[in-house]
Amino acid sequence: MLNNVNLLEKFEKMSYTINLRSLQVYNLLNNFRLTRLKCKKRMSTATKKETNEQEASTEETTHFGYQTVKESEKVRKVHKVFEDVAKSYDLMNDVMSIGIHRIWKDIFLERLGPCHGTRLLDMAGGTGDIAFRYIKYLANIPNPKNRQSHVTISDINQHMLDVGQERAKDLKYITQSLPQMSVEWKCENAEKLTFPDNSFNAYTIAFGIRNCTHIDRVLSEAYRVLQPGGRFMCLEFSHLTNDVLQWLYDQYSFQVIPPMGQILAGQWDPYQYLVESIRKFPQQEEFKKMISAVGFQMVQYENLSFGVTSIHSGFKL
């Protein structure tokens, strides 16, 4: 009997020792597993960080004026420029063109020659300069069939749109005051529009396309949202056809415009950028080829003021 009791005690001690060791082994393995998971997580984080850094370093570069910057950086910088000058945008254009931009825009609308029933998308049209001329133009021609016209003013910068909408209210260029015209304001990226295909029969962009990072994408989107038979028109600062005049224009641009911007609007850098962006914009013939490349037909351009600006036009046929 005593031997049985001793044997039972030994068995209990052995079981306890085995269980204790099993628990120790379990804890050891569990700690190893947790350490492994932590290391794996750290490695994953480090790999992700390294991947992001590699992606950032391999991101395509572009120009911001004469600076070379990453594409994402240009978007931010351009946005900041127009955010800063939104309220003085008309003054900025007056400074850069000695007031002649108003005549260029009038000629631009005359070349478009809209008729009643036109659905116009005016891109980079934040302050409404082109849209207001469009509304006024249609108001001055007969509309015997009472056709309804439309204009969507779109810009990537909400500050510019806010300024334009305030101006529209002052001029009563709003849908409620225009019986045969509907007006819409929408914040959009010209490189990736949300409008359906074939939404408009006219597309205008004035002094805006050179600020876009991918001009080819802007042109492709313009083609997509236009109806067959629709017309694309672009008014943009360009390059003079005479070397002597170009040299004089350069002196005025770089020596006069930024200081005038500082004096009149308290802004030097935006004016410096805008002058540089003009010089980086493609020559007339090169831009014409870009417009044709996305599918536009009957592409042509007209120089204004010896090429200080140009009107480019094409049709979706």
Automatic annotation (TrEMBL):
Q: Where is this region: Disordered?
A: 43-62
Q: Give the subcellular location.
A: Mitochondrion inner membrane
Tell me what reaction this enzyme catalyses: a 2-methoxy-6-(all-trans-polyprenyl)benzene-1,4-diol + S-adenosyl-L-methionine = a 5-methoxy-2-methyl-3-(all-trans-polyprenyl)benzene-1,4-diol + S-adenosyl-L-homocysteine + H(+)
Per the record, the pathway is: Cofactor biosynthesis; ubiquinone biosynthesis
Family annotation (SUPFAM superfamilies):
S-adenosyl-L-methionine-dependent methyltransferases
Broad class of the protein's primary localization: mitochondrion
Q: Which UniProt keywords apply?
A: Membrane, Methyltransferase, Mitochondrion, Mitochondrion inner membrane, S-adenosyl-L-methionine, Transferase, Ubiquinone biosynthesis
Q: Which GO terms describe its molecular function?
A: 2-methoxy-6-polyprenyl-1,4-benzoquinol methyltransferase activity
Supply one GO CC term from the record: extrinsic component of mitochondrial inner membrane
Q: What is its EC number?
A: 2.1.1.201
Q: Which InterPro entries does this one have?
A: SAM-dependent_MTases_sf, UbiE/COQ5_MeTrFase, UbiE/COQ5_MeTrFase_CS
Residue stretches in coiled coil: none
Q: Which residues are S-adenosyl-L-methionine-binding?
A: T127, D155, N189, A190
Q: Which Gene3D superfamilies match?
A: Vaccinia Virus protein VP39 (3.40.50.150)
Biological-process GO terms, alphabetical: methylation
PROSITE patterns noted in UniProt: SAM_MT_UBIE, UBIE_1, UBIE_2
PANTHER family membership: 2-METHOXY-6-POLYPRENYL-1,4-BENZOQUINOL METHYLASE, MITOCHONDRIAL, METHYLTRANSFERASE
Q: Subunit comment for this entry?
A: Component of a multi-subunit COQ enzyme complex, composed of at least COQ3, COQ4, COQ5, COQ6, COQ7 and COQ9. Interacts with PYURF; the interaction is direct, stabilizes COQ5 protein and associates PYURF with COQ enzyme complex.
Family the entry assigns = Belongs to the class I-like SAM-binding methyltransferase superfamily. MenG/UbiE family.
General function of this protein = Methyltransferase required for the conversion of 2-polyprenyl-6-methoxy-1,4-benzoquinol (DDMQH2) to 2-polyprenyl-3-methyl-6-methoxy-1,4-benzoquinol (DMQH2).
Full protein name = 2-methoxy-6-polyprenyl-1,4-benzoquinol methylase, mitochondrial
Q: Which organism is it from?
A: Glossina austeni
Name the gene.
coq5
